[in-house]
Amino acid sequence: MAKVCEICGKKPGFGHSVSHAHNLTPRRWNPNLRRVRANVKGTVKSVRICTSCLKAGKVMKATRKNPPKV
Questions:
Q1: Could you tell me if 39 and 60 are in contact, meaning their C-beta atoms sit under 8 angstroms apart?
Q2: With the C-alpha atoms ordered 21, 22, 26, 27, is the resulting torsion angle positive or negative?
Q3: CA within 20 to 30 Å of 58's CA: 34, 42, 46, 66, which one?
Q4: Bridge partners, residue 49, by sequence
Q5: Above 70 in pLDDT, residue 16?
Q6: CA distances for 49 relative to 12, 17, 25, 61, 68, angstroms
Q7: Percent of the chain scored above 90 by pLDDT?
Q8: What distance in Å separates the CA atoms of residue 9 and residue 62, rounded to the nearest whole number?
C-alpha cells in the first residue's frame, strides 16, 4: 500500500544518506501516517492521514455510538 496521506497527498521524500567518507546510499523519508476512523462526507471510513493533517483539524474523527460499559 502506498504511503500517501489521503487528505493532503503527502508522499515519501527521496534522497541519499551521506557517510563521513561521502558515500551515497539511497534512502527515503516517509510521512508520519496514522489510520483513523473519520467522518468523510457523512459516512465513517478508515483513512490514512498524516499527523500534521490530524493536528491541523482537517479531519473530524468519528465517535462511537455506544461506548463500552466499564
A1: yes
A2: positive
A3: 66
A4: 34
A5: yes
A6: 13, 26, 29, 11, 26
A7: 70
A8: 21
Rama region for 51: left / alpha / beta (φ>0; ψ in -120 to 50; rest): alpha
Mean of pLDDT over the chain: 91
Could you tell me the three cell numbers for 26? 539511497
Per residue in 47-65, pLDDT tens? 999 999 999 999 888 887 7
Beta-ladder partners of 47 = 36
Degrees (nearest 5) of the Cα angle 14, 21, 29?
15
CATH assignment of 13-61, among 2.30.170, 1.10.1060, 2.60.40, 2.60.90: 2.30.170
